[in-house]
Amino acid sequence: MTTEIDNQVSLFCDEFKKVRTEIGKVIVGNEEVIDGTLVSLLAKGHVLLEGIPGVGKTKIVSTVADVLQLKFSRIQFTPDLMPGDVVGSDVMHETDMGEKYLAFQKGPIFTNILLADEINRATPKTQSALLEAMQERSVTVGVTTHKLDPPFFVLATQNPVEMEGTYPLPEAQLDRFFYKLRIKYPESKHMHEIMNRTTAGSEPNATMVLNRDQILEMRETARNVPIAPSIQDYAIRLTLATNPNNEFTHPLATQYVRFGSSPRGTQALVVGAKVNALVSGRVHVSCEDIRSYFLPAFRHRVLLNFEGEADRIDPDEILTKIMNDVPEPEE
Amino acid sequence: MYSTLKKINQRIQISFHIDLFAKILCATLGFSVLLKIAEILFPFRAPGWEILLSGSFCIYLVFSIRRKLKSEWLDRAAGMADKLGGLRDEIKTAYWFMRHPKKSAWIDLQLKGAAKSLDSMKINELFPLSVSKWFLGVFVLIALQVSLGVLPNQTPLFFSDAGSQAPFSDMEVQIAELETILGSEVGSVLEDADRESLEEVLEDLKADEFDSEEVLRQLQEAEDLFNEESFEMDALNQEMAQIAEEFSDTDDLSVFSNSLGSSEFGDAADQLRELSERLSDMTPTELNNLEEGLQPSQNAESLSIEELLSALNEAGTALSQDEMSMAEGALTEAAATLDAMAQDQNLEEALNEAATNMQAMSQQVTQNANSSSLDPEGEMTAGSSGTGSDEVTQSSGGESGEGSGPAGNSTGAPSENAELELGEATTLEVQLNLEVIEEGLIDELPDPENLFQGGSQRQQSELEFRDVNGLAGYSPASALDIEVVFWEYRDLVKDYFLGIRPLRENDNRNR
Questions:
Q1: Homologous superfamily (CATH) for A1-223
Q2: For the complex shown, is ipTM > 0.90?
Q3: Which residues of B touch A (CB under 8 A)?
């Protein structure tokens, strides 16, 4: 039995590395974003990618879709996009006999990987159309609920909120994203590599390396990784430290935070840590695994109060301080 | 896995105890060195080594027991193994699952992996039993301690009275000595009432609750009493020295003569007794010489010397009449007289000592009273009992500067006929004036803009919101009324809204 698990673990590790290498053929740098995206996919989560235009958000998503043998759809969010454009709608059909009837026309959301490009350019109403799909993996139109095929993975991109013509995502919507990953501006050496790959001859392409069943199997494997209660307690203390008014509250949270992370954030921490442990070839979760995706899991779940907004505090600053200050389980 | 964890734990515990021991030793020595330095600088007597070592041992015991009481010691060993072995919480997780077994192939695999990692761990290298670095500090502090011990005892550099070399704790020593004296025969020279009164004073002094004037008066009375009871031993000694010369010519009395001359009456008495025992063995010639030697020509003024000479004369007469037993009896009687003189001599010394003690205590009480009545500027304040040239002057309520003097300051000048007698109560009149801010000072108030920036830098505005509009110039105030807030007014607007924000429960702001 243990040999079988051993094989599962090494297979998981190998396949993850294979996907990463394949994506790395197209995407230069941004290893953290790629790893975060894959961890999120294997932890049954969704990812929000944030970055200024032109840093490769959409490219990352399309490359991920390329290496996975899954159905892929893309929705370009615009201010005039309607919820029906996302989930689909009942459309009038006519039979050969001339009878008219309403049939549900599936929207682009009925896919495995959904690229919600520039999600913050759509109105909150349209953004909210994704809520049920992201959490329940189903879409309700009228009185009919349509199940989505697993795996359902939303990769949304957004420009920084301060930019013109954008609508901040509602808190409920934000909370449904497993990770919020920030794409950094590439360094000089990466810029050279990007120029070399994209401005001369043919552009590199990624090949498909993982199919749907493998992904589903990997998802199940990740959930089985055991975690010691003391490590779980560490994740919980980190979560509580982001919330004002409890025994573990961090002083910065008291000063600048209106609402801290939800329990969904703790789930993201723990499941993400389990995937991360497997990727490292381990069958146990460590505190380091918890910390490794603390910022992506919590940065969009921490809502600043007026003082935090006025002082232009970046949630990452608060979270980094919390991560440094909350002690690991006692040695 | 348990056995490996226990082995790790043993090594951790040993290292901990060595380290703890070294740290506590270091702290004790450090503290001891500080006390030593304090002894040099201040009039202070440090506690002995025994107290410090006992204290340190108690601290060591408390820490050791506290650590022993913690039940999760193997948990800690697992944590340390993870940390030092770079195992990313593998052992800690495995140890938890060992204590809380679950039927899972994943957990079995994890336990196997952890056991394998522990087996491959080089425990002796990762958990070495090394000597704590704190021992270096211990050696340095011991060296320092030794060098400080070599320094000669010297007067404290600070807070020591130049007129008194004795440390303040001498009072306790003097009280103890005086109690011993009172308990001895010296106390018997005092009448019961005087002795009881003196004992009460000593009790008050010990309890540090006394009226300086009353104590001084009683000590003075006791000193006078002791002086009165003096036996005037000096005059007696001088007279005895003159008489002693007359005995020096006789061989058998030369030692006796020396003892008398040096006022060692006890020794002289012993020599007379010895002489009386030897009388029967003496030759007639020796007896003749002794007979002549025992009859001095001088007359004595002092009664006790007269008694002595009379007894010696009687002994001489008895010898001339060959009445040996009578001579022996007379010599024994003379020896008894000398014994009584020796006792008087001792009593005299004790009385002198008691008088000196009284004097020293009087000085001590006076000094303490003076030092306690000094104000922080070193001025003598009313109610203190000064001695000698310490004169206390009474300050009368003088005129205060109109509206300009800080409230509460004494502005009165001492009057001419204000000399006080020792111990007389005095009063200090203080006239309080309201602080008046002159109109010109308003211009010195800080610039409103700086005021806001200061508040913003503190991240906590202490400005009442209603003051914002009142103190701000046109531009900052108008910033609150427009939709777009300019960057430079951002802090102002923030402070404004924070200022009018209702307080929440558990608000971190101290408003």
A1: P-loop containing nucleotide triphosphate hydrolases (3.40.50.300)
A2: no
A3: 72, 75-76, 79-80, 82-83, 88-90, 92-94, 96-97, 102, 104-110, 112-114, 459, 490, 493-494, 497-498, 501, 505-506, 508
